[in-house]
Amino acid sequence: MTDIVFIITLCLGLIVWVEIVRDFYHILAHNWQALYRFHNWHHRVFNSNFNPVSQEIYRKAHWYNDVPEALVMMFFGTIPVIILWSFNVDYWWFAESGFFYSSFFLLGAIFRGSGLPNMDKITDLTHHPGQFSSLPAQWFINRPYHWRHHFDNQKAYYSGTLALVDKVMGTALSLKGKTVGVTGASGTLGIEILKILHLNQAKIVAFSSKNKSITLDMNGYDLPVKTLIWEVGKEHELINELLKIDILIINHGINVNSKRSIEFIKESYEVNTFSSCRLMELFFQTIKTNRDKACKEVWINTSEAEVMPAFSPLYELSKRALGNLVTLRRLDAPCIVRKLILGPFKSKLNPIGIMSANWVAKQIIKNVKKDCRNIIVTINPVIFLIFPLKEFFQSLYFKIFTYKNSN
Ligand SMILES: NC(=O)c1ccc[n+]([C@@H]2O[C@H](COP(=O)([O-])OP(=O)(O)OC[C@H]3O[C@@H](n4cnc5c(N)ncnc54)[C@H](OP(=O)(O)O)[C@@H]3O)[C@@H](O)[C@H]2O)c1
């Protein structure tokens, strides 16, 4: 039994190893001009619908890029074989799994380069043309994920099969050039998120309920930000602006603390729950093209109050309702939906918060670049355990007891 476990672990480990080699070869190809001259053929092949622009370029690209890439994988795939063999490790020959796995890619590249019909359909799954039927995947690279490497930012989304290297390198999401809108923009966290987005080369748009343009203090110079004034209950007026937004960060919120009268119940749910849901649904309506499916996202700041007391019952109730509705709606969301699960940070809403909004904003962006879909930033270690469990089981429960269509 232990031998079988060892053999399976060895084989899978060496397949992961050659995939890591592939991704680093790819990164090198984008950062070393001598290699990029060959790799560039791969980028010249496709139009934005993943249709080859010419059969000649298509075939050449395989000889200049895919064949050498597979040979490098095979070369590095033999190194563990030699090491295990020289140490006389039992079953060392199973270490050849990485080499054999890579050789399939070599054969596929040779067949495609030779122009054998239909080979692309069988051996090149991430470059098929046509409408995207899924969203960018989290772990195994699919077409929308890889599309972003070709048409969003070539200096990101390097992974070819497993998203491991992108996650470790923080290249699983590129903010460069993306138009990012933030609600609650004049608030403590809103300002810090806008600053860090700007430093990450995003085009920032502030959505504020205060009738005042936002200017960021960027350590020595003032940066005026395009500011759109909006009002809870009139979210539909934003539709034309949302069409132009790539990433919408729904961050506005209130905390009525110890109040419990009907006015405060209404206000808490209206601001924290319903206006956020309306904005999310409105944003979903803007997703139409392959590019939208691959690049548009919505991030929703629900708070760790989803699973923990915040010593403010109406805040908890309204944020939990928001969190639960987001869990339900993201089962069918037409774009990536991320939740921000934040612990207490110092702000107008929470003057006794422990973390700083600046640090929280940095952690959010760091996690987003690793493509975390539930971004937990807190000093409470229990949340890292409770929240994923709650999210998993609630999502499963919603999936079992609800239907996508009304009929
Ligand atoms: N501070 C914490 O400990 C903590 C912890 C977890 C989660 N959060 C969440 O983080 C988000 C940002 O909070 P913050 O701590 O930075 O608080 P903040 O400084 O008070 O910012 C909240 C912002 O929300 C907007 N807002 C407030 N009332 C509104 C209304 N009626 N209609 C529309 N927008 C309204 C305002 O921005 P505009 O005037 O620009 O619209 C306000 O500045 C909130 O969703 C909050 O629940 C906070």
State the CATH class of the largest domain: Alpha Beta
Number of domains: 3
Q: How would you spell out the order of helices and strands?
A: HHHHHHHEHEEEHEHHEHEHEH
Architecture per CATH nomenclature, i.e. the level-2 architecture of the largest domain: 3-Layer(aba) Sandwich
What's the total number of strands? Answer: 8
- The computed structural class is alpha/beta
List ligands, each type once.
NADP nicotinamide-adenine-dinucleotide phosphate
What's the overall average pLDDT, rounded? 95
Q: Could you tell me how far the N terminus lies from the C terminus, measured between alpha carbons in angstroms?
A: 50 Å
**Principal-axis shape:** globular
Could you explain how this protein is built, in words?
- The chain is an alpha/beta fold and 407 residues long.
- It has 3 domains: 2-124, no CATH class; 138-172, no CATH class; 179-401, NAD(P)-binding Rossmann-like Domain (Rossmann fold), CATH 3.40.50.720.
- The protein has helices spanning 2-31, 33-44, 55-86, 97-113, 119-123, 143-151, 164-169, 188-199, 239-243, 262-285, 290-295, 313-329, 357-369, 381-401, and strands at residues 179-183, 203-208, 214-217, 222-229, 247-250, 297-301, 336-342, 374-377.
- It has an 8-stranded mixed sheet, sandwiched between helices.
- Helix 8 (188-199) links the parallel strand 1 (179-183) and strand 2.
- Helix 1 (2-31) packs across helix 4, helix 2 (33-44) packs across helix 3 (55-86) and helix 3 (55-86) runs antiparallel to helix 4 (97-113).
- The longest helix is centred in the first third of the chain and has 32 residues, at 55-86.
- It starts with a helix and ends in a 6-residue tail after the last helix.
- NADP nicotinamide-adenine-dinucleotide phosphate (NAP) binds at residues 184-190, 208-210, 232, 251-254, 271, 301, 303, 342, 344-345, 347-350, 353.
- NADP nicotinamide-adenine-dinucleotide phosphate is lined by residues 184-190, 208-210, 232, 251-254, 271, 301, 303, 342, 344-345, 347-350, 353.
